[in-house]
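Appendix B. Raw example, untouched.
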Amino acid sequence: MIQATFLALLISVSFAILFNAPKRSLLPIIFLGIVAVLVRKQMLEYNFSLEFSTFVASFAIGLFCIFFSSKQNIPILVYAISSSIVLVPTINAYKAMIGLIQISTHQIMDQELIVHSLHYSLKTWLVFGAIAIGIVLPTQFIGKYRFKIL
């Protein structure tokens, strides 16, 4: 867990600096990245699927983004993009691309390789969809009532 939180901190800050986020938003971005990784890891330990746990983690990012955005008067996207990078399924995307490249170059024409490549591709796209929907849902529902709730 300590290694995961440190990597989340490092990745979140790196992408915040890369995207030229304001200095005052760095601490909330670090907090959001760490929360996202911890929520996803905890749900995966309780045998939830990768897609659902990523959705819940990105939903938490969306909720906290609304809070920090209203407190610091910075757009939600500054927080959401830098902190959601830690949820990207890099290994699944890598395995899918390697399999698709092997299929397209006719190096290996195996039915098992095709099935595994499609499986990893579908899993990657479902996680990307879970990240997008999880961040957008709170901003759509709570954003309309922000002044009444917060």
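End of appendix B.
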